[in-house]
Amino acid sequence: MIGVHVFLPGSDDNAAIARVQEFFKNNPVRESWPWRHWNAQPLVSRTINRRISGFVDRSFHDVLKDMLPELGLSLPVGRTVSLGCGRGRQDRSLFRHGIVNALVGYDISPDSVEAAQRLAISAGIDAFEYRVGDLNALELPESSFDLIVAEMSLHHTTELERLFDVVARALKPNGLLIADEYVGPTRFRWTETQMRTTNGFLSMLSETMRTTPDGIIKPLIEHQPPSFFDAVDPSESIRSGEVITCMEQRFDIIWQRPYGGTLLHPMLHDIAFNFREGDLFAEAFLNAVISMEDVMMATGELASDFATLVARPK
């Protein structure tokens, strides 16, 4: 039986969970206008596709649709778990691509779970089920799933070793773990090179281009103290720098594509909506940042902060 952790009222864990739930209740979805998320900007989205697949119009899910049968899975796969499903955007995309049919999704946010279920039904998907669950204490039945997917959820997980153990046991012998993750520095402890380069670009922008949807001028990026994360989202990038290392201890990573975000993510966060399609300055500026990120990753001056991965239990 699939188990969900229950936090005791008044516990420290419960207080932290409440802050995380409140954050995701109010956090805008990636596609909503005005864009706050770096990867919602269309030129950036096409760049991510190019870095993953080699083509601007071929997404990660397009790649998976071709790859998974080559790895022994018949499509649509039989049973799937979505870890940290959010509002189910990825799950519905996997369904549209013919990759999954029946799916159970878990998220710590009751509001996200409600939205995911409602949006699945609205899309005519009746074999998706969503439940409130904490990835730090999730339990799954052994050898029960063909596919387990995670999109931007592993970097919110403290108990990575435990979660990967649970996932490895829950997958069938030929099952796979699919991840699209922030794997950059824990707690956004960006490198000096990364900060200097990002702030150089930010300094070139006008106040108008740096103004957030809340009317605040985006400051230059800097390291934040633990109290910042405790107040906003205690789970944010809690062990992001260890995601791949922990995964490799329990899984063989059979396919991996880094797709950057090392400059684009910190620069565009909260101001991506200012870079509108058709704006010649905005597109030229973004192309310059994209080119710089490509070059600096190629030379090793920057690592990739985001990656897509396909893995199989050892």
What key attributes describe this structure?
single chain; about 325 residues; alpha/beta; Rossmann fold; seven-stranded mixed β-sheet; about 40% helix
CATH level 1 class label: Alpha Beta
CATH fold-type name: Rossmann fold
Largest sheet: 7 strands, mixed
How many distinct helices? Answer: 11
Give the beta-strand count. Answer: 7
CATH architecture: 3-Layer(aba) Sandwich
Shape: globular
- The portion of residues forming beta strands comes to 15-25%
Class by alpha and beta content: alpha/beta
Distance between the termini: 24 Å
CATH-defined superfamily: Vaccinia Virus protein VP39
* Number of spatially distinct domains: 1
Show unreliable segments. Answer: 1-11
Element string (H = helix, E = strand): HHHEHEHEEHEHHHEHHE
What is Rg?
A: 19 Å
Mean pLDDT: 92
Structural write-up:
The chain has one domain: Rossmann fold (3-Layer(aba) Sandwich), CATH 3.40.50.150. The chain is an alpha/beta fold and 314 residues long. Strands 3-2-1-4-5-7-6 form a 7-stranded mixed β-sheet. Helix 6 packs parallel to helix 9 (243-250). It is built from 11 helices and 7 strands. Strand 2, helix 5 and strand 3 form a beta-alpha-beta unit. It has helices at residues 12-26, 42-53, 60-70, 89-96, 110-122, 160-170, 192-204, 226-232, 243-250, 264-268, 280-299, and strands spanning 77-83, 100-107, 128-132, 145-151, 171-182, 251-260, 306-313. It is globular, with a radius of gyration of 19 Å. The model is unreliable at 1-11 (pLDDT under 50).
